[in-house]
Design goal:
Blueprint: H1 2-20, E1 22-30, E2 33-40, E3 45-46, E4 52-53, E5 58-64, E6 67-74, E7 86-89, E8 93-100, E9 118-123, E10 134-136, H2 146-151, H3 153-163, E11 170-175, E12 184-186, E13 188-194, E14 199-203, E15 207-209
Parallel strand pairs: 1-7, 4-15
Antiparallel strand pairs: 1-6, 2-3, 2-5, 5-11, 8-13, 9-10, 9-11, 12-15, 13-14
Length: 210
């Protein structure tokens, strides 16, 4: 009988703690994009206007201004009273759109949605060959879209890098397609819409993709 009373008390107390007690061990962060630039993975550098890049060596470099602050969130103890530091994205990305001013080929004419041709990657600082030492976030089991990558571990890594004093990784959307690309001059426009209704739009300098 005593055991039943103790178990009942523990369940009640745990529920009360979860509903009433909050922790300050959560960092709420926000992703703000300042620009998006053309990038060559083979040269491991940004690409100036008018330069040429091979299609499967091309990427979009994400420049971000990320900020964070401690916030209160309910604690779910679940039998573990240790409150680890957690991270929470305050305004998740709803949609990403990537379009070009010019035909990529007959399948993707000017203005077509191209985001499914890009993969989310990061390149570690000091990497000499971005094609060989990049990390593909689609290797994460729960990430299947660019939006999920930025709302998940990729976005968290961007935020953590912004707080670090050491050199940051590069975060990019890399073009990956088996399609034959028609050599053309391109300006890429990226639109990012957040769940709050806020949106950002960036257009790259003109480059030749072949």
């Amino acid at each position: 009988m005593k055991k039943i009373i103790l178990i009942s008390f523990f369940i009640f107390a745990n529920s009360l703690l979860e509903s009433c007690i909050q922790k300050e061990g959560t960092l709420c962060y926000q992703l703000d994009f300042s620009s998006i630039r053309n990038y060559s993975l083979s040269n491991n550098s940004t690409v100036g206007s008018g330069e040429t890049v091979t299609a499967n060596e091309y990427a979009l470099l994400l420049d971000t201004n990320s900020s964070g602050k401690y916030c209160l969130q309910k604690t779910n103890f679940g039998g573990n009273l240790r409150a680890d530091l957690a991270y929470s994205l305050t305004d998740k990305i709803k949609t990403i759109s990537i379009r070009s001013s010019t035909d990529l080929n007959s399948t993707y004419p000017a203005g077509s949605e191209l985001k499914d041709l890009f993969i989310p990657i990061s390149v570690a600082p000091g990497c000499q060959d971005a094609l060989d030492c990049s990390y593909n976030y689609y290797n994460e089991s729960l990430i299947q879209t660019l939006e999920e990558a930025l709302n998940g571990v990729m976005g968290e890594n961007i935020f953590l890098d912004s707080r670090s004093e050491s050199e940051s990784s590069l975060y990019l959307f890399a073009l990956r397609t088996n399609e034959v690309i028609t050599p053309n001059q391109h300006q890429i426009t990226v639109q990012i819409e957040f769940q709050s209704g806020q949106s950002s739009e960036f257009t790259t300098g003109e480059i030749l993709l072949n």
